[in-house]
Amino acid sequence: MTRLYLLWVLQSLVPPETPLQFFYDVDVNLVTVYASVRDEKGRLVTHLRPRDFQVYEDGRLQHLVAFSNEYVPLSVSLLIDFSRSMSGKKILTARKALVDFAQGLRDEDEMKISAFNDHMKVIRFSPRKVSQLKDFVRRISPRGSTILFDALAETAYELKSGKNPRKVILVISDGADTSSTFSLEEAVRLLRASGANLYAVGIENRDRGALATRYGMDGDEVLQKLTMGAGGHAYFMDDDENPRRITDRIRDELKKQYALSYVTQNKRQDATWRSIEVRVNHSHLNIQTSKRGYYAPLRP
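Given the sequence above, the corresponding structure tokens read:
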């Protein structure tokens, strides 16, 4: 799918001033939020019950109709940046991070790999075929400019068709977009509308620090803005560091999340943004949710 075609597809779905409509649930009134909880030492807490949570939509307390801490299979899209700025140790570390994460996925998970610079290469893998994945990433040679935002927009759009209920994107990059059609703000908007959660592994050069970008912020700030807007988290490492510490943390978090479901009390189908806040009733615990809100469906 070319960038111009993707832009036409996404913008034709709805006028620019209206939120793009992606439906995550069969029942549009049912809203599911995934949450991970950590204690003051950063350890995941997995023994909580429904009474330990409060969910608010637009400031209004909602009644939970379903609760689970069982593993939910993932549809995962892994994105690896192989643009020119990822040369040297960066691409070696990025390859290892991608393989490390993929090796820990379960058989019931669905996985797609995309490599991008100024275009995208896409290939689908079973989590069991890690040898093919290793061969694929070995052939990636850094060159060209970077379409980080376009790659995320296209991935979010295609991930809608994933067979599993949880949709996750992991991008491995230095965050230095140079030639996307979409802006940073548009990429965040599309990620939010898709319902996919975005995690990032940001790779830096110890001597140069984070790369500056065309948006007046460095690559770290770009990845933080993207992931914060899409219910995930950005983790950063040096290009000569072992990435397993980070990939294990992300994968472990995805495996140990609570699923909180409620039927929204707001029945209006007006395409407005509805904010979600999840609180845990223990002051020493920290909570991170899969999304900060959703766009209401638009009545035909």
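Residues 168 and 197 are 5 Å apart (CA to CA). Try to locate this feature in the token string yourself.
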